[in-house]
Amino acid sequence: MAAPLTNHACCERAGRPQSAAPTIMARRITRRKFLADVGVAAATLPLKSLILSALPAEDESLLLWYDKPASEWTEALPVGNGRLGAMIFGGVASEQLQLNEDTLYAGSPYDPNNPEALKALPEARRLIFAEKYKEAHDLVGAKMMAQPIKQMPYEPVGDLRLEFDRHEPVFNYRRQLDLDTAIATVSYRVGSFPTFTREMFASPVDQVIVVNLTSNGHGNLTFSATFQTPQKATVSTEGANTLVLRGVNGDAFGIKGGLKFEARALVLAQGGETSAEKDRIVVRGADSALLLIAAATSYRGYKDVSGNPQAITREQIRRASVKSFASMRAAHVREHQRLFHRVKLDLGRTTAADLSTDQRPAQFLQGRDPHLAALYFQYGRYLLISSSRPGTQPANLQGIWNQLMTPPWESKYTININTEMNYWPAETANLSECHEPLLRMVSELVENGSRTARVQYGARGWVCHHNTDLWRQTAPIDGPLWGFWPTGGAWLCTHLWHHYQFTNDRRFLARAYPVMKGAAEFFLDTLVPEPRHNWLVTCPSISPENKHPAGVAICAGPTMDTQIIRDLFNQCVAAAEILGIDKSFAAQLTAARQRLPPMQTGKAGQLQEWLDDWDLEAPERQHRHVSHLYGLFPSNQITQRTPDLFAAARKTLELRGDVGTGWSLAWKINFWARLRDGNRAYALLQKALTPVYAKEFGGGGGVYRNLFDAHPPFQIDGNFGATSGIVEMLLQSHTGDIELLPALPKAWPNGSVAGLRARGGFEVDIVWKNGVLDHARIKSLTGTSCHVRYREKTAHLHIKPGATVFWTPQK
Ligand code: FUC
After folding, report:
1. CA of 480 to the centre of ligand 1 (A)
2. What pLDDT does residue 698 have?
3. Which residues, 6+ apart, have CB-to-CB distance to 247 below 8 Å?
4. For an engineered disulfide with 70, which of 31, 76, 91, 685 has Cβ 3.0 to 4.6 Å away?
5. What pLDDT is recorded for position 42?
6. CA distance 343 to 381
7. Residue (of 264, 284, 259) closest to 273 by Cα position
8. In ligand 1, which atom is closest to the CA atom of 409?
9. How far is the CA of 466 from the centre of ligand 1 (A)?
């Protein structure tokens, strides 16, 4: 993990003015009409502008579109380049781009480790083994939690506001996000004026957000641009055409803000007049205008805040301003499509797919819109590309999109499920590069994690509990019910191994190995024998956030911990062998692994969540976390090759039921796919796609109008989890075999997918007809041999890297 890592120089709504609702003439505008209008607009313009406004040939099926502006944040459309994000509202009188930069968190480097924890540790263990759980919970809460007990929130930069003079009456309004080009477009006609069009994107190539305003007439564009922000910041102008927002980040939970940030917008109008007025740039009578928006903070790393955001944003704007809109647009689309085009999914299309996006979930629930599942799948890929690129911060609870100074759960990294879920589709849905920010974050946790291990446990190695933030903090937060869980860092380490499994990148493994080894060392030092069987267990720990019959979560050796540690130890042993190093350490791990508790089946035939058979007496039987099924997904410890555990896992899921928050439903799609029950996985996908804005919505998971997943509130993990679940229905490779269509639901009798990835270094295309595999194509990226399976048919294939093999089992 020591590879040089790019250092990217990279409001609360209440009380902030909202865009006045424009009068929208309620006439539905079709995509054809939209393109025709834009085309007409282009036809009346000089050649240069014509190139600027022409929409390219695009995959028509991958649009989110609406016939009204967004009236709330979860209706706005997200664009992002991994680092910079914008939520675009598409207002007519007033456009709002709510802006984020991925290093703008509150606080500064800090040390929350609790020096009293180590003294309390033996007593906490004694109480737990004496079954005095409530007393142990109180002790852990009083003596062993981080100080402060919260981590730092992710914060917004502010909004770019555009106020337009012509806004009534509006005809032919349409706004869309094209997943294929990663461009958001707003288009409408005002009265007898011709069509106004805005194209907007966040360029990963030029590191700016680009807004291009056109109108198909001369001198029609009159507007002002300004910044608004809930931050401690000032808005000023430079020259006649530059807006500057300059501020400092917030303090939080007693930690002082230590970051400076700056956003700049350069307004380049063609024709008309541009001038600066106090805190705004005013454009009058222009033909078109190009806005370039840059934002950066002084964050240079988790212990370095010495960057110069002014120099960074000036330079980014300077570089972009010498390029034409057309060339920036083309470079942006090319870079997006380099990643996005790797996977195609066709599940069939009906006329329901022509409806505006907010009407489609209801159709999907009626079984009338199979295409929405494909759109949702590709939206997950779009969101990962837009929120996580090499060199950026990993996607947090909201990806990179957040408008609040105090967002839910601080919009940071919850690593007892949510952050991992964000990255489940990274390898399988062919976006391996987008995994990089998470993999780098794991290595960045080692320093603070080693301090937590030493200070709080007197242990070697490193540990991270159930959350981390920009500052890579690792101590237990929130309280013992949620936070006293030492296995978060270990779970993240399994991502290092998975990346290797999919890529066969031995050099990466060599860099990752010390990180994995450090995580394992922590457990060699802190696992303790439990009194009944002498099994080695974590203690204190919790089965994430779930209370057992004593009414607290604190316990010893929850099943999930053992499963994660078993994976970590196995993966370290395998990595050491591949790398030809560390034999004696591997032997220690093998010996310790043999003393871990086995997975146990309880009195209802379920997989036990805890060492004791408590599941039926636990107070929240339908709890959203199904932590002990980590062994089923994402791990491969429970498969058809372990039939008793496989049946017990199924029983556990049946007992839990199908209710859940957004991410919980998404996890269950993956579980049912691994249990090879495609119809049940599909039923969960339907729940995940329930419109939360429908009157009949009963709570617990679903989607907003912009197809963001609802916990509720918005949390992006459910988007990524469902994307992963759709892959798991079509292709699995966790048993060593490449399994084709392991959980195909009846709802998708005919279809095809191209470009999914399988462990071992393969890319897989699958075509099916009438519910049966027609053929598959397996391309070797780095692997040389694989075992392919479709139902009971199997084949062993030898494939040279770069070569493709065609497989038709029936014929
Ligand atoms: C965990 C979950 C909550 C929420 C939060 C961000 O604590 O139990 O449901 O997703 O993370």
Report:
1. 14
2. 79
3. 229, 231, 232, 233, 234, 260, 261, 262
4. 76
5. 36
6. 9
7. 284
8. 6
9. 10
Q: What is the pLDDT of residues 372-385, one digit of tens each?
A: 999 999 999 999 99
Q: Which of 661, 593, 703, 635 is nearest to 414 (CA)?
A: 661
Cis peptide before 540 (omega within 30 of 0): yes
3-state secondary structure at position 30 = coil
Q: Residue 699: pLDDT band by 50, 70, 90 thresholds?
A: confident
Q: Which residues contact 226 (CB under 8 A, 6 or more apart)?
A: 160, 161, 163, 235, 243, 279, 280, 281
Q: Is the distance from CB of 460 to CB of 453 less than 8 angstroms?
A: yes
Q: What DSSP string runs through 472-539?
A: ---S--S-HHHH--TTHHHHHHHHHHHHHHHH--HHHHHHHHHHHHHHHHHHHHH-EE-TTT--EE-S
Q: Residue 811 has what pLDDT?
A: 54
According to the model, what pLDDT value does residue 472 have? 98
Please identify, by atom number, the ligand 1 atom nearest to the C-alpha of residue 416.
Answer: 1
Please identify, by atom number, the ligand 1 atom nearest to the C-alpha of residue 397. Answer: 6
Out of 150, 154, 398, 409, give the residue to mutate to test ligand 1, the one with the largest number of ligand atoms within 8 Å of its CB: 409
**Is the pLDDT score of 25 beyond 70?**
no
Q: What is the pTM of this model?
A: 0.94
pLDDT for the residue 40: 36
Question: pLDDT, tens digit, for every residue of 531-575?
Answer: 999 999 999 999 999 999 999 999 999 999 999 999 999 999 999
- For residue 656, the CA-to-ligand 1 centroid distance in Å is 17
Strands 737-740 and 785-790: parallel
Contacts of 785 (CB under 8 A, 6+ apart): 796, 797, 798, 799
Residue 720 CA to residue 668 CA, distance in Å, equals 13
CA dist 58 and 176 (Å) reads 13
192 pLDDT above the threshold of 80? yes
Pocket of ligand 1 (CB under 6 A): 397, 409, 414, 418, 482, 545, 624-625, 661, 663, 711, 715
Mean of pLDDT over the chain: 93
The HSE-up count of residue 792 (CA atoms within 13 Å, CB side) is: 0
User: CA 766, 771, 776: angle at the middle one, nearest 5?
Assistant: 15
Q: Which atom of ligand 1 is nearest to the CA of 663?
A: 10
| Nearest one of 103, 201, 723, 664 to 400, comparing CA atoms | 103
Contact 798, 785 (CB under 8 A): yes
- Do 563 and 596 touch, CB atoms closer than 8 A? no
Could you identify the atom of ligand 1 that is nearest to the CA of residue 715? 10
Residue 384: strand, helix, or coil: helix
DSSP string, 336-375: HHHHHTT-EEE----GGGGS-GGGHHHHHHTT--THHHHH
DSSP lists the bridge partners of residue 757 as 763
Distance 304 CA to ligand 1 centre (A): 29
pLDDT at residue 411 greater than cutoff 70: yes
- Closest among 346, 399, 396 to 371, alpha carbons compared: 346
Separation of CA 482 and ligand 1 centre (Å) = 9
Please report the pLDDT score of residue 173 as a whole number.
97
Question: Residue 59: is its pLDDT beyond 60?
Answer: no
Please give the distance of CA 75 from its chain centroid, rounded to a whole number: 18
Alpha-carbon span 142 to 508, nearest angstrom: 41
Q: Which two three-digit tokens encode residue 609?
A: 């969540």
Residue 26 has pLDDT above 70, yes or no: no
pLDDT digits (tens, 9 = 90+) for 738-749: 999 999 999 999
Q: What is the DSSP string of 136-171?
A: HHHHHHHHTS-SSSS-PPB---EEEEEEES--SSEE
Instruction: Provide CB contacts within 8 A for 442, sequence distance 6+.
Output: 1, 489, 492, 493, 495, 496, 512, 515
Confidence category of residue 46, pLDDT binned at 50, 70, 90: very low
On the question of a cis peptide bond just before residue 148, with omega within 30 degrees of 0, the verdict is yes
Q: CA-to-CA distance for 272 and 794, rounded, in angstroms? A: 69
